[in-house]
Automatic annotation (TrEMBL):
PANTHER family xrefs: MANNOSYL-OLIGOSACCHARIDE ALPHA-1,2-MANNOSIDASE 1B, MANNOSYL-OLIGOSACCHARIDE ALPHA-1,2-MANNOSIDASE-RELATED
Short name of one Pfam family: Glyco_hydro_47
Species of the source: Paraphoma chrysanthemicola
Coiled-coil regions listed: none
InterPro entries noted in UniProt: 6hp_glycosidase-like_sf, Glyco_hydro_47, Glycosyl_Hydrolase_47, Seven-hairpin_glycosidases
Similarity section: Belongs to the glycosyl hydrolase 47 family.
Pathway(s) of this molecule: Protein modification; protein glycosylation
Disulfide bonds: C335-C364
EC number: 3.2.1.-
Catalysis performed (reactions): N(4)-(alpha-D-Man-(1->2)-alpha-D-Man-(1->2)-alpha-D-Man-(1->3)-[alpha-D-Man-(1->3)-[alpha-D-Man-(1->2)-alpha-D-Man-(1->6)]-alpha-D-Man-(1->6)]-beta-D-Man-(1->4)-beta-D-GlcNAc-(1->4)-beta-D-GlcNAc)-L-asparaginyl-[protein] (N-glucan mannose isomer 8A1,2,3B1,3) + 3 H2O = N(4)-(alpha-D-Man-(1->3)-[alpha-D-Man-(1->3)-[alpha-D-Man-(1->6)]-alpha-D-Man-(1->6)]-beta-D-Man-(1->4)-beta-D-GlcNAc-(1->4)-beta-D-GlcNAc)-L-asparaginyl-[protein] (N-glucan mannose isomer 5A1,2) + 3 beta-D-mannose; N(4)-(alpha-D-Man-(1->2)-alpha-D-Man-(1->2)-alpha-D-Man-(1->3)-[alpha-D-Man-(1->2)-alpha-D-Man-(1->3)-[alpha-D-Man-(1->2)-alpha-D-Man-(1->6)]-alpha-D-Man-(1->6)]-beta-D-Man-(1->4)-beta-D-GlcNAc-(1->4)-beta-D-GlcNAc)-L-asparaginyl-[protein] (N-glucan mannose isomer 9A1,2,3B1,2,3) + 4 H2O = N(4)-(alpha-D-Man-(1->3)-[alpha-D-Man-(1->3)-[alpha-D-Man-(1->6)]-alpha-D-Man-(1->6)]-beta-D-Man-(1->4)-beta-D-GlcNAc-(1->4)-beta-D-GlcNAc)-L-asparaginyl-[protein] (N-glucan mannose isomer 5A1,2) + 4 beta-D-mannose
Residues involved in Ca(2+) binding: T504
Full protein name: alpha-1,2-Mannosidase
GO molecular function, a single term: calcium ion binding
Length: 514
C-alpha cells in the first residue's frame, strides 16, 4: 500500500488521502506520509520476505533453471552461462529468511548443474562472486547454524563438491605467464579473451577461492589467487599508483604490469578495495598486509578524492581519477563505499573511518531522494564544466546531475545503509532502507517479477528493460531484509569479532576458524 501511494504521489496523478494543504511541497508531503505509515521493523522484514517469495515464484514458474527471469514477457535469459544464476544467488537469502521450501528447491537442483556445459564465454569474476560465493555460503550456513533447513544431507555435501568441480573447471584461467588470470574463458577449447584484465575482476576472487581452499583442504585454490593478488598489492609501474594505495584499472596478464592510472571506488575497481579489509576480517593472521593496503587506500581517498559539490557543500562524494586529475563523477555501483568505510572503521576501531563512511552514505541517500522515482541513477556527476543547462536547476538543488538515468536493481545504496545501521543503531538508516525498498517496489515491479528500468527521474521509471538481475535475489532483498531484522550470528558488527563476512554478491561466508 505504501508503495503504490508513494508512486502516485511522485507521479502527481492522485490526490493525497491524508489531510495536507493542497500546495504542500512534495518532500514535506512524503515525510508526513512516511511518518503516518511508518511500520515496525518486523512488518517491514515480513514485507521483504513476501517480495522475495513473489519474485522466486515468478522466476521458478517462468525461468528456472535458467539464469534470470524476463518478467514483462514471462521469458528467461541465460547471461551467466545457463547454470541457474538466480537460483544459486537466491540460496543464501532464502536461508537467512528461513524459507525452507525454497532452500530445498535450490539445493536439490545444484547437483544437476554441469559446469562443462555452456555455449558462451565464462567470466571468472562473475562466476566466482555469484556461483562459487553462493554455493560456499549455502554450504557454510547449512553445515552450521541453519543445518535444520536442509531435508537432504547429501544435497548439502553436494554444495561443496559442486564448488570444487566449478573451481576445477575455472582454474586454467590462472595459467598465464604472470599468474594474473584471464577473465573471459571459453571452456570448450580452454580459450581466453586475451591478455587484458581489470582491477576488480582480478581483485575480487580471493575471498571465495581461499574459503574453498580452507573447506576442501586443497591449498592450490588459495595459492592461485594469492599469486594474482600479489600484483595488486605491489603494483608496477609506480605511475599506476597515482595516490598511495589507489591504483589503475587495466592489467596485462602476460606481464602483471598495470596499463593505466585511471580509477576510483567505481565499477571495474570497486571490490578490489572492498576485499582488502574483508580478507582481514576473514583471517587476520594471514591477511594483515591486505588490511594495511586498505588503510593506505582509505586514507588517500579521504585526503585526495573526497569532494563536495559547489551547489551542495554539505554533501560528500568520492571522485574518480585519471592520474592525479580528478573526475567529478560517481556511480550507483560506487555507493558501496560508505558501507565499506564503516565496516573498516568498526573492525579497526577507527571512528574517523566510520564518520567518513556515514558522510558517503548520506551523499548516496541524496541521489535517491532527489529523483522523481526516489531511486538513485546509475551514473551522476558534479563537474560544473560539463553541466547541461537542462539540469542546472536540478544540480543547484541536489548537488549532482544525472549522466546515466537507468536503475538495474542494484543494491549498493541499501547495502551501505545496512552497514550504517549496524554500526550506529540509528533507526534513520532503517527508514532510509525502507523508503528505498518501497520506491523500488513501486517502480520496478512488473509482470511476474521486478525489472531494471530506463529512467529514475521520470515517474514510472521510463520503461522496463525486461530483465531481472540475479543480484536482485542475492543482494537487494537480503540487505533490505537484514537491516530490518534482529540479531543473528551472520549479522555484521554484532560486537567482538564478526563471525561471517559478506562477499561482494552479499553471500555470507564464515570466517576462518581460530
Ligand atoms: C509493492 O507493490 C505492490 C504492487 O504495487 C503493492 O501491492 C505492495 O503493497 C507493495 N509493497 C510495499 C512494501 O510497498
Ligand atoms: C567440470 O564440472 C563438472 C561437473 O559439473 C565435472 O564433472 C568436471 O569434471 C569438471 N571439469 C574439470 C576440468 O574439472
Ligand atoms: C556435461 O557437459 C559436457 C559438455 O557438453 C558433456 O560432454 C558431458 O557429457 C556433460 N556431463 C553430463 C553428466 O551430462
Ligand atoms: C538426496 O540428494 C541426493 C543428491 O545430492 C540424491 O541423489 C538423492 O536422491 C536425494 N535423496 C532424496 C530422498 O531425495
Ligand atoms: C587442487 O586443485 C587444483 C586446481 O583446480 C587441481 O588441479 C588439483 O588436482 C587439486 N588437487 C587435488 C588433490 O584434488
Ligand atoms: C601485454 O604485454 C605483452 C608483453 O609485453 C605484449 O606483447 C602485449 O601486447 C601486452 N598486451 C596489451 C593488451 O597491452
Ligand atoms: C544555479 O545556481 C547558479 C549559481 O548560484 C545560478 O547562477 C543559476 O542561475 C542557477 N540556475 C538555475 C537554473 O537555477
Amino acid at each position: 500500500m505504501v508503495g503504490s501511494r508513494l508512486f502516485a504521489l511522485v507521479a502527481g496523478t492522485a490526490p493525497l488521502v491524508c489531510a495536507l494543504p493542497a500546495n504542500t511541497p512534495i518532500d514535506i508531503a512524503l515525510e508526513h506520509w512516511n511518518k503516518r505509515q511508518s511500520s515496525a521493523p518486523v512488518d517491514r522484514a515480513q514485507a521483504v520476505v513476501d517480495t522475495f517469495k513473489l519474485s522466486w515464484e515468478g522466476y521458478y514458474r517462468y525461468a528456472f533453471p535458467n539464469d534470470e527471469l524476463k518478467p514483462v514477457t514471462n521469458g528467461f535469459g541465460n547471461s551467466r552461462n545457463g547454470w541457474g544464476a538466480s537460483a544459486v544467488d537466491a540460496l543464501s537469502t532464502a536461508l537467512v529468511m528461513g524459507e525452507k521450501d525454497i532452500v530445498n528447491q535450490i539445493i536439490s537442483y545444484v547437483p544437476q548443474i554441469n559446469w562443462s556445459q555452456t555455449d558462451i564465454s565464462v567470466s571468472l569474476f562473475e562466476t566466482t562472486i555469484r556461483y562459487l560465493g553462493g554455493l560456499l555460503s549455502g554450504y557454510d550456513l547449512l553445515s552450521g547454524p541453519l543445518s535444520n533447513l536442509a531435508t537432504n544431507k547429501s544435497d548439502v555435501a553436494a554444495l561443496l563438491t559442486q564448488s570444487i568441480n566449478l573451481a576445477n573447471n575455472l582454474s586454467y584461467a590462472f595459467e598465464t605467464p604472470s599468474g594474473v588470470p584471464w577473465n573471459g574463458l571459453t571452456f570448450s577449447n580452454r580459450g581466453n579473451d586475451g591478455d587484458n584484465n581489470g582491477l576488480a575482476t582480478v581483485g575480487t576472487l580471493i575471498l571465495e577461492w581461499v574459503r574453498l581452499a580452507d573447506l576442501s583442504g586443497n591449498a592450490t585454490y588459495a595459492t592461485l589467487v594469492e599469486k594474482a593478488e600479489s600484483y595488486l598489492l605491489n603494483p608496477s609501474p609506480a605511475s599506476s599508483e597515482p595516490f598511495p594505495g589507489l591504483l589503475g584499472m587495466n592489467i596485462n596478464t602476460t606481464t602483471g604490469q598495470f596499463q593505466d592510472a585511471v580509477g576510483g571506488w567505481i565499477g571495474g575497481a570497486d571490490s578490489f578495495y572492498e576485499y582488502l579489509i574483508k580478507m582481514w576480517i576473514y583471517d587476520p593472521a594471514r591477511y594483515s598486509t591486505l588490511k594495511d593496503r586498505w588503510i593506505i587506500a582509505a586514507d588517500s581517498s579521504i585526503q585526495y578524492l573526497a569532494s563536495h559539490p559547489s551547489s551542495r557543500p554539505d554533501i560528500t562524494f568520492l571522485a574518480a581519477y585519471d592520474g592525479r586529475t580528478l573526475d567529478l563523477t560517481s556511480q550507483h555501483l560506487a555507493c558501496f563505499d560508505g558501507g565499506n568505510f564503516i565496516l573498516g572503521g568498526q573492525v579497526l576501531a577507527r571512528q574517523d573511518y566510520i564518520d567518513f563512511g556515514l558522510a558517503l552514505v548520506n551523499g548516496c541517500h541524496e541521489t535517491y531522494t532527489a529523483t522523481a522515482t526516489r531511486i538513485g541513477p546509475e551514473i551522476f556527476s558534479w563537474d560544473t564544466t560539463k553541466l547541461p543547462a537542462s539540469q542546472a536547476a536540478f544540480y543547484n538543488a541536489s548537488g549532482f546531475y544525472i549522466t546515466n538515468p537507468s536503475y538495474a536493481l542494484r543494491p549498493e545504496v541499501i547495502e551501505s545503509y545496512y552497514y550504517a545501521f549496524r554500526a550506529t543503531g540509528d533507526s534513520k538508516y532503517q527508514d532510509w532502507a525502507w523508503d528505498a525498498f518501497v520506491a523500488i517496489n513501486a517502480t520496478t515491479r512488473v509482470g511476474s517479477g521486478y525489472s531494471s528500468i530506463r529512467n529514475v527521474n521520470v515517474a514510472g521509471g521510463g520503461g522496463f528493460t525486461d530483465f531481472q538481475e540475479s543480484f536482485w535475489f542475492a543482494e537487494v532483498l537480503k540487505y533490505s531484509y537484514l537491516i530490518q531484522s534482529g540479531d543473528a550470528e551472520w549479522q555484521v558488527g554484532g560486537g567482538g569479532r564478526d563471525k561471517w563476512v559478506f562477499n561482494t554478491e552479499a553471500h555470507p561466508v564464515k570466517v576462518a576458524a581460530g
